[in-house]
Amino acid sequence: MTLAYVALGSNLEQPAQQVGAALAALGHLAGATLLRHSSLYRTAPVGYADQPDFINAVALLDTDLPPLALLDRLFEIEQRFGRERSFRNAPRVLDLDLLHYDGVIMSEPRLTLPHPRMRERAFVMVPLAEIAPAGMLPGVGDVAALAAALDASGVERLDESRGTRQQQE
């Protein structure tokens, strides 16, 4: 079995419920076991700004699927949720990105590992650091240090049971 990290995001059709349902779908994915997932985070859109905020999370899977087969399964889940790819950074009901696959470095037309832009995105690195603070990304660096170096001011952790902000003590 191999550890793989998957980013989840949604900003359409009750995004917190979409991400929760997608986590459940990952938990039933043949050839993989959902080990844990981060909290949910509300984040501002990146790229195309004229759209609703996103709800994001990161999940850790233990899988016997090779990277491209896992990617295909993630795309199948997106399709079941009604994902449409109208233009880059468009609003979406569900986005699943394979971030990291247990030390694999690859660059193919369909998949680059580790994900080439993850280290620049607080909406990915903050939830990843929550569940893998001691993680190392091959050719990229230490997860916690990468997350700490980003401006995370637009990343707001939510209370998962209600989809609302958690109170800071």
From TrEMBL:
As for family, the record states: Belongs to the HPPK family.
Going by the entry's taxonomy, the superkingdom of the source organism is recorded as Bacteria
Presence of keyword Transferase: yes
Q: Which SUPFAM superfamilies match?
A: 6-hydroxymethyl-7,8-dihydropterin pyrophosphokinase, HPPK
One Pfam family recorded for the sequence: HPPK
**What is the protein's given name?**
2-amino-4-hydroxy-6-hydroxymethyldihydropteridine pyrophosphokinase
**Residue ranges annotated for the 7,8-dihydro-6-hydroxymethylpterin-pyrophosphokinase domain, each copy included:** 88-99
Signal peptide location: none
Q: Pathway of this protein?
A: Cofactor biosynthesis; tetrahydrofolate biosynthesis; 2-amino-4-hydroxy-6-hydroxymethyl-7,8-dihydropteridine diphosphate from 7,8-dihydroneopterin triphosphate: step 4/4
Q: What is its EC number?
A: 2.7.6.3
Q: What does the function comment of this entry state?
A: Catalyzes the transfer of pyrophosphate from adenosine triphosphate (ATP) to 6-hydroxymethyl-7,8-dihydropterin, an enzymatic step in folate biosynthesis pathway.
Keywords, A to Z, come to: ATP-binding, Folate biosynthesis, Kinase, Nucleotide-binding, Transferase
Looking up PROSITE patterns in the UniProt record yields: HPPK
Identify the InterPro entries for this entry. Hppk, Hppk_sf
**Keyword Lipid metabolism, does the record have it?**
no
Q: Which GO terms describe its molecular function?
A: 2-amino-4-hydroxy-6-hydroxymethyldihydropteridine diphosphokinase activity
